[in-house]
Specification:
The complex is a heterodimer. Chain A has helices at about 25-35, 45-50, 60-75, and strands at about 5, 10-20, 85-90, 100-110, 115-120, 130-135. By secondary structure, chain A is α+β, with helices and mostly antiparallel strands. Chain A is elongated and about 50 Å long. Chain B contains three helices and five strands; from the N terminus they run βαααββββ. In chain B, a hairpin with a 4-residue loop joins β4 and β5. Classes of the chains: A alpha+beta, B alpha+beta.
């Protein structure tokens, strides 16, 4: 059975976090700070020519918001966990302006890591899922991942 | 046809104001070092040149399809790092470019490995 709260036990459903609206100014500020040269995030004419209704919200901005949500959940728990892994698959490009919600659920708890499943969806009920991802957290006050052999 | 390129090691660094701008770009009012900071290093001219050499930008736009970061240490502002990137393209799963990147501190200790998948979309009316 899932439960909602600040704990990170297996099955815990974490409080969803809403962000936005992400407008053109937000997208442009992100793209400039990230040095993202992709014209889909900077040039409205290019975005529209590619079939989007506005500047495309960078997937990395969505993953960055996932990181913020995770940081908030970790801080609420107060156990000093580290983020060992953060990943996302960007399923449906979102065009600005759009509001999004980041949700999280604890899907695995092991000695070395706690695994959160993350989803990002637009506020519109009819909008498709924008991003699914994972965050791996260290145990409380735990260490880092070991680099891959030969990495 | 598949192609691959290796870039680096490259010197990468983000100043404190640059990190702060990224934190606020992710979320207005945000602070700290965003987990996604390493993606900023892919803007290095040599990485972009390699990407450009592998992509016909007159015919395509690039969509970021997937991204992962594995952290073996903290990444700090105002600190020098080295980054190597392995870029690969192929048609096995559609028009995509993957980038496997490794960031190490100046002693050679790996602090982050990250994997980027870009999808190439044909531009309407492209030549």
């Amino acid at each position: 059975m899932s439960r909602l709260g600040s704990g990170l036990g297996r099955g815990a459903v974490l409080p969803a976090v809403a962000y936005g609206p992400i407008d053109e100014a937000w997208v442009r500020a992100y793209a400039a700070a990230a040095l993202d040269p992709n014209p889909l995030h900077r040039d409205l004419a290019v975005a529209q020519a590619a079939g989007f209704g506005g500047l495309v919200v960078p997937g990395m901005l969505l993953l960055g918001l996932c990181g913020r949500a995770v940081a908030g959940w970790v801080a609420a728990e107060g156990a000093g966990r580290r983020v060992l892994h953060l990943s996302g698959r960007f399923l449906a490009p979102l065009a600005a302006p759009v509001s999004v919600e980041v949700s999280g659920r604890v899907v695995a708890v092991a000695a070395a890591r706690t695994v959160l499943r993350l989803t990002v969806k637009a506020a519109s009920a009819s909008a498709p899922l924008a991003c699914v991802g994972e965050a791996w957290l260290s145990p409380p006050s735990g260490g880092w991942l070991s680099p891959s052999p030969g990495g | 046809m598949s192609t691959a390129r290796r870039v680096g090691p490259l010197a990468v660094r983000a100043s404190a104001p640059e990190v702060a701008a990224l934190a606020q770009g992710v979320l207005p009012g945000g602070s700290g070092v965003p987990d996604i900071l390493p993606i900023r290093f892919l803007a290095h001219a040599e990485v972009q040149a390699a990407l450009a050499a592998m992509t016909d930008m007159a015919r395509h736009v690039v969509l970021h399809e997937a991204q992962s970061f594995d952290f073996a240490g903290e990444i700090h502002a105002d600190t020098d790092y080295k980054m190597t990137c392995e870029l690969a393209s192929g048609n096995e799963s559609g028009a995509r470019i993957t980038i496997e990147s490794v960031i190490s501190d100046m002693s050679g200790t790996i602090v982050c490995e990250f994997h980027t998948t870009l999808r190439l979309l044909p531009v309407a009316g492209g030549a």
